[in-house]
Amino acid sequence: MTTTRLPEAGDSRSIPAIRLDHASFGYAGRPFTDGLNVTISQGEVVALLGPNGSGKSTTVRGLLGLTDHVSGTVEILGTTLEDLSDRSRLGYVPQRHTLSNSVRSTVREVISTGQLASRSWWRRATVEDRELVSRAADTVGLADRLEADVATLSGGQQRRVLIARALASRPDVLIMDEPTAGVDVANQAVLATVLRRLAGMGVTMVVVTHELAALRGIVDRIVEMDAGHISFDGTPREYAEHRAAVSRAADSGLGQPDTNGTHPGYHDHHHDEEPEEHGLLSGTGPMDGPVEGNET
Ligand SMILES: Nc1ncnc2c1ncn2[C@@H]1O[C@H](COP(=O)(O)OP(=O)(O)OP(=O)(O)O)[C@@H](O)[C@H]1O
């Protein structure tokens, strides 16, 4: 039996992974974000930046149906959020989340829970399910820790377990909310290696972060939010220019320059290589070596 989600004849990588058209998200039916217009192509790696409280988590959690979709259109791979019956197409690594020390679970068990949403509760794990768990662990460099108690792992390793858990259902889009927050610089580098590997495999990623430097060379595009709206959308190079212009304007007392680079259909500066297969773990990536790190 196979659970692959490879594109069928006629399917196209040209369908956007995520399309927001005047979309707003909020709480108790009230919008917090403005009508957001963003189109993210398949295989793109997007960093979502912005000050605390600007609406980053509200937006990515809205994609997952965890905050209210108040207005506008939200499409995931061409299917509206409301019609998206298979939520396992979206993998999610939540914010500031490590695994409780009070529950004894092995790494294998935690990663396996990532498959529950896509598997009927009465169906036992298949050989392929178990293989996907092993491959997810391998992708994050924890293949040799599958039987370890998660409580014995470092914070950075636990983040990697959570990334593997998100990968175990072979999502089409991976959404991560501050995956490097609270992780020391050495372990941020390990996580960056994992993300680089996923990017090389053609995985579409939306990464909420305050630590752009940790994702240098991985991110194709930067979307910045401010007070619930998009204040910038462009390449990392354009973002650097935007920040420099903001600094110059601040230095000269002119306030914010008009450097809003919003261009929702951005496709430039993209991964050169098309992934061979559509599913996340359906092929080996270009970085199959172990993920190095000096974690304690
Ligand atoms: N459950 C909730 N109910 C009502 N309002 C909420 C809820 N969660 C968050 N908010 C509000 O939504 C607004 C946006 O918060 P959000 O968490 O999206 O910001 P953020 O950009 O992700 O910030 P941070 O970088 O601090 O995580 C804030 O004013 C916050 O107080």
TrEMBL record:
Keywords: ATP-binding, Nucleotide-binding, Transport. The lineage of its organism: Bacteria, Bacillati, Actinomycetota, Actinomycetes, Micrococcales. It comes from Ornithinimicrobium ciconiae. It comes from the Bacteria. Residues 265-279 have a biased composition (Basic and acidic residues). One of its GO terms (molecular function) is ATP binding. Residues 18-252 form the ABC transporter domain. This is Metal ABC transporter ATP-binding protein. Residues 245-296 are annotated as: Disordered. Pfam families: ABC_tran.
